[in-house]
């Protein structure tokens, strides 16, 4: 895991070296400063040579300027290193998620992917920057300071070191408590966020039930819990800081008294005493740093583990070795003995046989949950079949590249997803390199022209979350315009108009009929009136394909379809 973590440094080796080297030099200068003071007091002061003192002062100034410069490098370039690694990981994660198959998204919550891409990576970046560098510097400073203290006076050094185990004990105990508190806090703030998201996006429901107070009460509970957790973390932190402060002051005092006594007995010079006290500070500084890393490490590593977990998931549907790039499909589709299930225990499709001719319009009807959408999801290989095979133009779809296969299939669903952006961008999503004429033509054929002309900004109108809200019918027409641009030989309409009122549906139906022309079209429909003109109707039930035939044939047969038709006819007068 650690080795994997360090592999992310490789592209930024140079940056790491510069940063690390600068940090070491800064630490060495810090380490040497008390020695310079000692030399100043014990040697230079008794000599009383003013010009030497001035030139030594100038020398020190030069060192300080250099140290300042190096500290700038450590600060800026060190953070740059952390940010670079964070950005690399984010890029990798996004690209990885884009390639995942549908089953991955069935099983992974959007919120979790989001928190990995944002929060987790921030913690990892912080660790990447501070972890190795600060740890090395802390150990180096601690060992260096203690070694110099030993050379100044052994007894005094030993007195100082006595406190270290107590310090470590205090920091460790407090850290464990603090980690627990922070973990609780993270989970509590996630709950608070979830509450906010829920009641804001559901505000219309809340207000129509006048349940505002209920929501406020629930929120208050979460908000208080968060406050409690965060507060208890800060309580431990304050206690730990005070404890560290008290222990270090105590030891400085002890060094001062014991050092004074040693000095009276001529075992220690004034300069040595002053420098020693300065070293006590240098010695304890890394203790703070190490405790900070101890906080950073579990957070960053936990994030990294979650990151790796995602990165190591391979997409399920991949191109076979030697898969062919197809450029054009005629559109003959053949299901041969196809079985499929989302999870092992519950088969959805069992031994389905179905053949669809190029250019045919075939409709699927049947109760919801029967597997109509599933049948259609198998054609673009959103999922792979468990058994049997699906052929298009006589070729097994697994022998085609995923990309070229999907470029030949267009899907319009009930929910149209609009991206934040302009109307033009949303239409052009069907063909990213579409020309102006093509976009206008597609909009015209999707019966969008009039609507677009009525907008003050026309094609440049912003839509989506903060832009113009579109009606279901308008959204559906954008989806149809996308399809005209994509112009695929195979078209799937999955309840494309089911959410619309009958009047809107009738208008959209014209555009859809035009779209379906000269393509193999699979329509899943809820209202049977919309599929009267289909070449063939397939009735899908939980037991598989139950009936197949033209509208009239199925009515005459008097089976499931005839019954469904009868019920809808009575309800809606279709
Ligand atoms: P239809 O489109 O005919 O309403 P579906 O094909 O959507 O039916 O669903 C068929 C069955 O598969 C249902 O029992 C449904 O619960 C299940 N199902 C659909 N999608 C998934 C999925 N992504 N993961 C697991 N089960 C699913
Ligand atoms: Mg469905």
TrEMBL record:
Database matches in Pfam families: ABC_membrane, ABC_tran
ABC transporter domain: residues covered: 333-567
Name used for this protein in its record: ABC transporter ATP-binding protein
Organism of this sequence: Heyndrickxia vini
Primary site of residence: membrane
Keywords associated with the record: ATP-binding, Membrane, Nucleotide-binding, Transmembrane, Transmembrane helix
Topology relative to the membrane: Multi-pass membrane protein
Gene3D superfamilies the record matches: ABC transporter type 1, transmembrane domain, P-loop containing nucleotide triphosphate hydrolases
Source taxon at top rank: Bacteria
Membrane-spanning intervals of the chain: 20-41, 53-74, 135-152, 158-176, 244-261
InterPro entries tied to this protein: AAA+_ATPase, ABC1_TM_dom, ABC1_TM_sf, ABC_transporter-like_ATP-bd, ABC_transporter-like_CS, P-loop_NTPase, Type_1_exporter
């Amino acid at each position: 895991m650690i080795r994997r973590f360090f592999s992310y440094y490789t592209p930024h080796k140079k940056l790491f070296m510069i940063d690390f080297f600068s940090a070491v030099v800064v630490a060495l200068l810090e380490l040497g400063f008390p020695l310079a003071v000692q030399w100043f007091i014990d040697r230079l002061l008794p000599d009383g040579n003013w010009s030497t003192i001035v030139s030594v002062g100038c020398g020190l100034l030069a060192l300080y300027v250099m140290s300042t410069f190096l500290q700038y490098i450590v600060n800026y370039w060190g953070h740059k290193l952390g940010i670079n690694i964070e950005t690399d990981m984010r890029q990798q994660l996004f690209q990885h998620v884009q390639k995942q198959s549908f089953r991955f998204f069935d099983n992974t919550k959007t919120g979790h992917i989001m928190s990995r891409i944002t929060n987790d990576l921030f913690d990892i970046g912080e660790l990447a920057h501070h972890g190795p560098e600060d740890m090395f510097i802390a150990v180096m400073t601690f060992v260096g300071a203690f070694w110099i203290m030993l050379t100044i006076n052994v007894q005094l050094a030993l007195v100082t070191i006595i406190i270290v185990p107590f310090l470590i004990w205090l920091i460790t105990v407090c850290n464990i408590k603090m980690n627990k508190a922070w973990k609780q806090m993270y989970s509590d703030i996630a709950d608070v966020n979830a509450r906010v998201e829920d009641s804001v996006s559901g505000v219309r429901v809340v207000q129509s039930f006048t349940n505002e107070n209920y929501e406020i009460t629930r929120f208050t509970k979460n908000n208080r819990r968060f406050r409690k957790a965060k507060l208890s973390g800060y309580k431990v932190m304050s206690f730990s800081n005070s404890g560290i402060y008290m222990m270090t002051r105590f030891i400085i005092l002890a060094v001062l008294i014991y050092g004074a006594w040693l000095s009276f007995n001529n075992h220690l010079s004034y300069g040595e005493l002053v420098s020693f006290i300065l070293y006590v500070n240098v010695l304890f500084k890394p203790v703070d740093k190490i405790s900070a890393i101890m906080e950073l490490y579990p957070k960053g590593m936990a994030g990294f583990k979650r990151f790796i977990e995602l990165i190591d998931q391979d997409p399920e549907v991949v191109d076979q070795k030697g898969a062919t790039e197809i450029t054009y499909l005629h559109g003959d589709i053949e299901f041969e003995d196809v079985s499929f299930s989302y999870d092992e225990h519950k088969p959805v499709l069992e031994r389905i046989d179905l053949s669809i001719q190029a250019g045919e319009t075939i409709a699927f009807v049947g109760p919801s949950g029967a597997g109509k959408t599933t049948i259609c999801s198998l054609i673009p290989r959103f999922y792979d079949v468990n058994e049997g095979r699906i052929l298009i133009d006589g070729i097994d779809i697994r022998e085609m590249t995923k990309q070229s296969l999907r470029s030949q299939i267009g899907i319009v669903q009930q929910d149209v997803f609009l991206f934040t952006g302009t109307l033009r961008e949303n239409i052009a999503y069907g063909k990213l390199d579409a020309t102006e004429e093509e976009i206008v033509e597609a909009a015209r054929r999707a019966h969008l022209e009039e609507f677009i002309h009525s907008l003050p900004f026309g094609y440049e109108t912003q839509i989506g979350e903060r832009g113009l809200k579109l009606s279901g019918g308008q959204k559906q027409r954008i989806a149809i315009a996308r399809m005209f641009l994509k112009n695929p030989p195979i078209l799937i309409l999955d309840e494309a108009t089911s959410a619309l009122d009958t009047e809107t549906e009738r208008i959209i139906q014209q555009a859809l009929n035009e779209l379906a022309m000269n393509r193999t079209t699979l329509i899943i429909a809820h209202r049977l009136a919309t599929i009267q003109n289909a070449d063939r109707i397939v009735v899908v039930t939980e037991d598989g394909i139950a009936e197949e035939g033209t509208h009239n044939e199925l009515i005459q047969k008097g089976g499931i379809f005839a019954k469904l038709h009868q019920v809808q006819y009575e309800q809606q007068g279709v």
